[in-house]
Structures are given as C-alpha cells and as structure tokens.
Automatic annotation (TrEMBL):
Intracellular or extracellular location(s): Cell inner membrane
Main location: membrane
Record organism: Luteibacter jiangsuensis
Annotated spans, Disordered: 133-153
Keyword terms of this UniProt record: Cell inner membrane, Cell membrane, Membrane, Protein transport, Transmembrane, Transmembrane helix, Transport
Similarity section: Belongs to the GSP K family.
Top-level lineage group: Bacteria
Protein name: Type II secretion system protein K
C-alpha cells in the first residue's frame, strides 16, 4: 500500500506530465497556426503573381490587336482590368523612346544627364565614360575612363570595352552614383539601336535628351501626343516594349512584374513575342 508521501510524489509527477503535455500541445497548435498562415499567404501571393502574369500577356495581345483602334498605346499610360478577384494595372513603354547605351551619341548622353539635373562638367564626364565603356581599346577619350582611371578610383574592374550586356551594367560606369542612376535608369535601354530616342514614343526625360529639341519642343510634342486619337498613336508603336503589371487582391496581397518583350507578329506557327528581360517585384 502506497504511503502518503509516495502518493504525493506520484501526484506531482502526474501534474508535471500534464503541464509538459499542455506546453507541447500549445507549441504544436502555434506551429500549426503559423504554418496555416504561411500557406494562406503563399497561396494569395501565388494568385497575385499569376494575375500579374496575366496582365503581361494581356498587354502583349493588346499591342498586336488587328484593329488599331483597340490597340494599347506604349506611352506609359495605365490600363486596368479585373482578373478573378484581382485588380490589375498595366503600363507599357516603347524602348524606341529611350536612350540606347550602346548606340546613343555623345550629345544625347550629355543631354540625358543634364536633363536629370547633373552639372554640365560631370554630365560630359559621364557621357564620355559610357562611350569608353562600350568602345574597344585601352586609350581613354578626353574626360573618359578606361582601366587606369578605374584603378585610380580604387575599383577592382575596368570597362567592358564592348557593348553593354544589360541596362543595369551602367551602374558600374565610373562616376555613376546612386542618385544619378535612379534618375536616368527609366530612360535607358540596350534594345533600340537608335542614335537618339524616337520622339513619337519618348518619355519626358528621354525627349529632353534629344539635341536641339529643348524644353518647349518637348512640351509641344507631349501636348500633341495627348491630343492625338488612340488609333494613330497605337499605329506608331514599335516592336520592343517594357511592360509593368501590378496585381492587387481583395485582401491587399500585391505582386508586380516588369518584362521587356520584342513582338514578332501574330502568325500561324510563330511565337508572337520573345522575352528579353523578366524581373519580379518592384525594380528601379
């Protein structure tokens, strides 16, 4: 027969066991709740992501619509539509209206940096450094930069001495700081092949980079563009575009995509577009 002391010890062991079991069950419940919340978030994020992808596909289709009047215009304006329970907004910019890092003249590059608020002397140096980055050879141009200038600045690399492989590569050019990059990045491309931006498609900063156009000329072009009918504007779309799509679900879950595509036309047996760049989330 158990003594009173033994019964007390047994009761204490049972109480500790129950307490430990309660703690374990509470931990499992918290873990299950956390995993459930994560699963719901991932599910919502996936739905928003595919809604944004649907926006990109919708833009590609609208850019090539057979009826010019229903084509979307690649001048940065926002188009919106509903996809299931997501609100999708899309903007399209024609790459022809940007400054091509591999083809732009020195005057255009100068104009771009000046339009972005860079002082004249520094704008000349940045323009020359970009031209030296893409130009073969080891000799720097006046105000430019080749390997010795990068070494003197304490950088562990030099210019490519060939075409820019990505737009983001321009961040590495000697003299390019974060503030300047943020200002000019939306106006840069490597896909137009043009010495100067196409004024029909260019956004304000790229327009201001065109030599001889001036502020008044740029404002006149933008005003005329705003008065033109959609069919004429859409008919002037180029073939390479950057599409930004953002999808927001009813619960506030958000996803965004930015894709640069080259249109190939809608013909039987032909892929109607080629993806040149694909970025997820907010990008500079």
């Amino acid at each position: 027969m158990m003594s009173t002391r033994e019964r007390g010890v047994a009761l204490l062991i049972v109480l500790w066991g129950c307490t430990l079991l309660a703690i374990m069950l509470g931990g499992f419940a918290a873990l299950a709740r956390t995993e459930g919340l994560q699963a719901r978030y991932q599910y919502a994020q996936t739905r928003a992501h595919y809604a944004a992808e649907a926006g990109v596909m919708r833009a590609i289709e609208a850019l090539q619509a057979r009826d010019f009047r229903s084509r979307w215009i690649a001048d940065g304006r926002v188009y919106a539509f509903d996809f299931d329970d997501a609100k999708v907004s899309i903007s399209i910019v024609d790459e022809d209206g940007k400054v091509d890092l591999n083809a732009a003249s020195g005057d255009v590059l100068d104009g771009l940096f000046k339009a972005a608020g860079v002082a004249d002397d520094r704008a000349h140096r940045l323009s020359a450094a970009i031209q030296d980055w893409r130009r073969p050879g080891d000799a720097a141009s006046p105000n430019g930069a080749k390997k010795p200038q990068y070494d003197a600045a304490g950088l562990g690399y030099g210019p490519r001495n060939g075409p820019f492989a990505t737009v983001e590569e321009a961040r590495m050019v000697l003299g390019m700081d974060a503030t300047t990059w943020t200002a000019v990045a939306p106006a840069l491309t490597i896909w137009s092949g043009r010495e100067r931006p196409n004024a029909e498609h260019a956004q304000p900063l790229a327009l201001a980079a065109i030599p001889g156009l001036g502020r008044a000329g740029a404002e006149a072009i933008l005003a005329k563009r705003g008065q033109a009918d959609g069919a004429n504007l859409a008919g002037g779309n180029g073939v390479t575009h950057t599409i930004r799509a953002e999808a927001i679900l009813d619960d506030g879950t958000r996803s965004s995509l930015t894709s640069t595509v080259r249109l190939r036309g809608i013909r039987s047996g032909n892929q109607p577009y080629a993806v040149l760049r694909w970025r997820e989330g907010d990008v500079e």
